[in-house]
Amino acid sequence: LFSGRVDFLLSAPALKFLPEPTVPEVAFAGRSNVGKSSLLNALTGRKSLARASVTPGRTQELNFFEVGDPLSFRLVDMPGYGFAKAPPAVVEKWRRLVRDFLRGRVVLRRTLLLVDARHGIKPVDDDMMKMLDEAAVGYRVVLTKADKIKASELAEVTARTEAEARKHIAAHPQVLVTSAELKMGIDDLRAAVLEDALI
Ligand code: GTP
Ligand code: MG
Predict the structure, then answer these.
(1) Average pLDDT over every residue of 68-89
(2) Considering the entire predicted model, what is its pTM?
(3) Is the preceding omega at residue 70 within 30 degrees of 0, hence cis?
(4) Which of 11, 108, 142, 173 has its CA 20 to 30 A from that of 163?
(5) Ligand 1: distance of its center to the CA of 115 in Å?
């Protein structure tokens, strides 16, 4: 499916701009700069499907991508959170958009919660996990940028993250480890997304 059609559909700055809920969706969430856009690009084998940026907080909208011909499911790049310099009004707008999307989106099958492997789960990630728990949206924690740390540190952060995930009702117990840079863990991620979207 990923080797077939993958197209950008639209960017929704508010819920009224969402596409019709006609096919299953899998969303990507995580802190600003965690590597959501890069991982989406690696997953779909496209170089710049989702815009990857060096400026944190560039993705402010819900970005929809369509996979398959005929259309099979959609991927949703959610706006990043935890950007220190964001004004309170922007944070509040983000919170409302994301919370209402998670609560109300009937076709949303699963969310992938991306966490930087160098940092592990931070308080802002834990808040996001609580929001997902409350919205009853199942999610998998995905460690990103695994190429940035040593194998021993990676094993340690993976174990720690799995222990954290087990404390959350809607979290999948298994944590996926990836690097968009090295194309590491991408096949497993692809399999997980297909399973989440289509089963
Ligand atoms: P926002 O949309 O701004 O919230 O960011 P994002 O989560 O979409 O992150 P993005 O994909 O734009 O990546 C942020 C920065 O991290 C970029 O400079 C990427 O090149 C870098 N990056 C992303 N993935 C990896 C990775 O696997 N390894 C390394 N070393 N760098 C990465
Ligand atoms: Mg992005």
Answers:
(1) 88
(2) 0.94
(3) yes
(4) 108
(5) 11
